[in-house]
Amino acid sequence: MDAIKSTIAENMGGIAHKLADAKDQFDINKDVPDQTGKVALITGGSEGIGFATAYTLLKSNISRVFIVSVSEDVIDKAVEEVKTNLGAEYSSKITWLQCDMSDIVAVAGVAKQVREQTDRLDILCLNAARGIMTYQLTDSGIDRHMAINHIANVTLTSHLLPLLKQTSGGGPVRIQIQASNTHQISPKDTKFASLDELNTDLGPQVQYGRSKLAALLYARYLDAHLHKEHPNILINATHPGFVETKMSVDDIHEPYPKAGYAMSTAMKPFKKDIWMGCVSTVYAATATTKSGEYICPPAIAEPGSELAQDAQLGEQLMKLTRDIVREKFASESVEKGCPLKDY
User: Which chain regions cross the lipid bilayer (predicted)?
Assistant: First the structure.
């Protein structure tokens, strides 16, 4: 019965969070610690879960929020909502950095802009993602799901490491990586052995699920290495639940023009809104004192799949990630002195 309650709490909307055990409760309206003096960066922070996270941090008095996203129209709408609801003093704390997260070189450029504009970074929320959509390659010849949902995260984090380490000297720094329970549908024979393996079309859901397995493995990899060397840096993966966002309303119709209505319309009464959807993210970004966990809503630590617990698979994933960066971007990064340091 407890397992059923946890499953409902983790995935569904409405009163679902109230079904979780008392120890696993977290309320963004009363449990978020004061964020005065802190600086955050949120990828995909202009809409959906990312926006709800940014809004909640601003309400909690954070000093500055960098939002990385693609569309100027969307960020303008987000800033206006903050200004209308919280006031101009809050919206003025937002700095927008435009970036297509599938462009790995541009991601590195964003990190450089952040380092030039702040001397601290307390919170890094890696939220931007490609959802359940059809197989595509980026201009660099990498599966778009893996490029956005994993390699971009590694690139951004790696280039921000000096800033994160510097900030951790004065207290906890938290890195939150958006995973998903969909990681459980990754092929059992996933090896992360080659680019050819990544570039094999597995179908929309499995392609997405495998990229979220990578996100979870990356969080645990950083916990095993970065957290070990810098114990004030806490790294956790999160699952948001089944949330009403652009991904589940609009994007789902790209791979499934008709069947997508089962998710976008029929399931609407059971979905979380973005404020419930951001709870595990905000908890990981502001309140947890642990590292290396997979946090499901509201604040339930889960083990994840067998593959997600395979440390050797995580090591192989990161080896492949470094190899791909060397192969694809050597002239634009490695040969220009990029150390490819990921912890």
Answer: none
User: Does residue 122 form part of some domain?
Assistant: yes
Pair 168, 226: CB distance under 8 Å: no
Give pLDDT tens digits for 292-325.
999 999 999 999 999 999 999 999 999 999 999 9
* Domain-embedded: residue 213: yes
Q: Which residue in 93, 212, 271, 328 is the catalytic one?
A: 212
* Cα torsion angle, 152, 155, 158, 162, sign: negative
Residue 188's domain spans which residues?
A: 31-240+278-330
| 98 vs 261: which has the higher pLDDT | 98
- Give residue for tokens 């971007």: 329
Q: How far is CA 171 from CA 37, 38, 219, 235, 309, in A?
A: 12, 11, 20, 14, 28
What are the tens digits of pLDDT across the range 3-43? 888 889 899 999 999 999 999 999 999 999 999 999 999 99
CA distances to 43, 51, 65, 263, 293 from 95, in Å: 12, 13, 6, 33, 29
CA distance 46 to 70: 9
Query: pTM of whole model > 0.85?
Result: yes
Catalytic site includes residue 30? no
**How does DSSP classify residue 29?**
T
Bridge partner list, 300 = 296
Contact at 8 Å (CB) between 280 and 49?
Answer: no
- Let me know if residue 232 belongs to a domain: yes
- Check which CATH number belongs to the domain holding 44 and give it: 3.40.50.720
What does each C-alpha distance from 79 to 22, 66, 74, 94, 275 come to in angstroms?
A: 35, 12, 9, 8, 17
Domain contains 249? no
Exposed, middle or buried by CB within 10 Å (0-12, 13-18, 19+), for 306? exposed
What is the reported pLDDT for 339? 67
Give the active site residue among 90, 208, 218, 343.
208
Residue for token digits 């990229």? 211
Q: Is 212 a catalytic residue?
A: yes
State the total domains in the chain: 1
What's residue 5's pLDDT? 84
